[in-house]
Write a structure and sequence with these properties.
InterPro entries: Dna2/JHS1_DEXXQ-box, DNA2/NAM7-like, DNA2/NAM7-like_C, DNA2/NAM7_AAA_11, P-loop_NTPase, SF1_C_Upf1. It is found in: Nucleus; Chromosome. One of its GO terms (cellular component) is nucleus. Keywords: 4Fe-4S, ATP-binding, Chromosome, DNA damage, DNA repair, DNA replication, DNA-binding, Helicase, Hydrolase, Iron, Iron-sulfur, Metal-binding, Multifunctional enzyme, Nuclease, Nucleotide-binding, Nucleus. By secondary structure, the protein is of the alpha/beta class. Helices cover about 40% and strands about 15% of the residues. It has 26 helices and 15 strands. Strands 3-4-2-5-6-1-7 form a 7-stranded parallel β-sheet, with helices on both faces. Strands 12-11-13-14-10-15 form a 6-stranded parallel β-sheet. The longest helix has 16 residues. The radius of gyration is 26 Å and the shape is globular. The two termini are about 35 Å apart.
């Protein structure tokens, strides 16, 4: 490459990376002048995140009143204080907002409005935390208060803003328009400020908006630095580093943290940092009976799935909002084509069989044998196979499981034949290797089915947080092999995490099917406890010849996909 063309593609990041290409979006069209040039991509590890967090900690140590107040709350853990009265406008005009909520949500909203400094809102799965946030913002707007809506991700911020649009509330979104949904782009800063000619124009425009949406990392914006808002609401607060969430809190007189400490914490890779408490969120740090209101009436899971979540994690706190939610089961428009007893039981609409555990026993050798030809024809390669050593190959195969994939595909096939829409089916896998394998297979499977049955989503537990489906199939994947060189650290971090398992089992509304080798998983405390609650009608051993089950049939059906793959 000529020297003058150096760094021409450092402006924007990659849009979508896959096995064969890395498409880039660039500010300039390089094809005319550099059409025949060879470009070299250099990885650049940005220090922006680190600098942001260090600057935020520095701001916390400042002598201004806002920093002193936050230090008393964060470091000294000063308990929140509450007013005993509310403005008359809430009693007069707030009824139309409050009447859309259940009694527990109403109490949470009123508690948030009376908080003088801060409040924690613990939103258990399916309890309508976003609806509650929208009600709080609506009433604050009614009171003439200014609000920052923030979170760790753009999607969480926009999820709230989209609901506010339906309430006809105006807001300013601080973000690149390409990062937000189409419905919100006209509310982005660069669109709204296009006619501003002077700093005064900008200042006046900013001050006309009392609701501002921005991610925590975007909260160093001059608008938030130079203006103090009345309230800062942090959604998914349990997933944000303390050093990151402090920045928007400095810009407000009081704050509301919304989240669930029983689900995934902030991502911290460093073991040393974890040991020092870096993965403790501010929500977890401040959580106490005096500071926290719990949303416990849930509208997602039927009573069988909710009972499992309560037994494993929530200690009876989760309550079905009504009888309809409690008794809802899987709906199959058509009769199940397969008459195999194990399949009929898995897809039963009986409320007591809403959770099914399929025990595969140890299928490592069977999976290994099948993968020798299948993985090559499917063009499946694990993300961990860059090192061609035998040790690495064995280690990698530990985190993908063709037999479990075969069972998943058999279940999906029966569900689709029974008329279930693909968008109602979710597949979760513990390891990314298994996710990649399953995605490849599902893509090939969907080639031959009607459009309305497509859209089956396969993802990791982490990517499913905050989401739900009518039917969830969970491939635990782990299956021990005496000759394997297992990555004990990776296993322990993922499989020993109660919070990750809690996310997995609380994504389904009507049917949860868990597939795994009980013996291999029983050494991990969360799974051992999970299995202790799944006995009798809920557990089914996939033994050859029992309940009409045949591994040969399952793997033969899986093998049909070979002919659909371009080698």
């Amino acid at each position: 490459m000529e020297e003058e063309s150096d760094n021409l593609m450092t402006r924007r990041g990659s849009e979508c990376v896959n096995d064969s290409q890395i498409p880039f979006s660039n500010f300039r069209d390089l094809t005319k002048r550099y059409k025949n040039e060879l470009f070299i991509l250099d990885r650049n590890d940005s220090q922006t995140f680190t600098k942001f967090n260090l600057a935020t900690i520095g701001a916390l140590l400042d002598e201004r009143e806002a920093s002193q107040r936050l230090r008393r709350i964060i470091i000294d853990r000063e308990q929140p204080k509450f007013s005993t009265t509310l403005p008359k406008i809430i009693a007069k005009d707030g009824k139309r907002v409050l009447q859309k909520l259940n009694i527990i949500q109403q109490k949470a909203v009123l508690k948030a409005l009376t908080a003088n400094d801060y409040l924690l809102l613990k939103g258990l799965p399916g309890t309508g935390k976003t609806q509650t946030i929208v009600a709080i913002v609506s009433l604050l707007a009614m009171m003439g208060k200014s609000v920052i809506i923030t979170s760790h991700t753009h999607s969480a911020v926009d999820n709230v803003l989209l609901r506010l649009l339906k309430e006809n509330l105006q807001f300013l979104r601080l973000a690149d328009p390409s990062r937000v949904p189409d419905e919100i782009r006209n509310y982005c800063e660069c669109v709204l400020t296009i006619d501003c000619k002077t700093p005064e124009d900008l200042k006046n425009l900013y001050e006309t908006y009392n609701i501002v949406g921005v991610t925590c990392l975007g909260s160093a914006h001059p608008l938030l630095v130079h203006r103090t808002f009345d309230v800062c609401i942090v959604d998914e607060a349990t997933q944000v580093l303390q050093s990151t969430v402090i920045r928007p809190l400095i810009s407000a007189n009081k704050f509301l943290l919304v989240g669930d400490p029983e689900q995934l914490p902030p991502i911290v890779k460093s073991k040393a940092a974890k040991k020092l408490g870096a993965d403790e969120s501010l929500f977890a740090r401040l959580d106490s009976p005096e500071a926290t209101v719990v949303l416990s009436l849930q509208y997602r899971m039927n009573k069988t799935i909710a009972k499992l979540a309560n037994s494993l994690t929530y200690k009876g706190e989760l309550k079905c909002a009504n009888d309809t939610v409690a008794s809802s089961t899987i709906a199959l428009p058509n009769q199940i084509a397969s008459r195999e007893k194990w399949m009929v039981k898995c897809l039963s609409s009986h409320i007591d069989q809403s959770v099914i555990l399929l025990n595969t026993d140890n299928v490592f050798n069977r999976s290994e044998e099948f993968s020798k030809n299948f993985s090559r024809k499917l063009n499946y390669t694990s993300e961990d196979t860059t090192d061609k050593s035998a040790e690495t190959k064995v280690k990698t195969r530990t985190y993908s499981n063709f037999c479990e994939a075969g069972v998943v595909l058999a279940l999906i096939n029966s569900l689709v034949q029974a008329g279930v829409a693909g968008s109602d089916i979710g597949v979760i896998a513990t390891f990314t290797s298994q996710v990649k394998l399953l995605r490849n297979m599902v893509d090939k499977f969907e080639m031959d089915i009607l459009q309305e049955h497509r859209g089956i989503e396969v993802n990791t537990v982490d990517q499913y947080q905050g989401r739900d489906k009518s039917i969830i199939i969970y491939s635990c994947t782990k299956c021990d092999n005496p000759d394997a060189v297992a990555d004990g650290v990776k296993d322990t971090e993922i499989l020993q995490d109660f919070r990750r398992l809690t996310v997995a089992i609380t994504r389904s509304r009507h049917k949860l099917i868990i597939i795994g080798d009980i013996k291999s998983l029983n050494v991990y405390t969360p799974f051992k406890e999970l299995f202790s609650h799944l006995k009798g009608m809920s557990k089914l051993d996939l033994n050859e010849g029992k309940q009409d089950f045949s591994w040969q049939q399952v793997m033969d059906k899986l093998g049909v996909l070979e002919n659909k793959v371009d080698v």
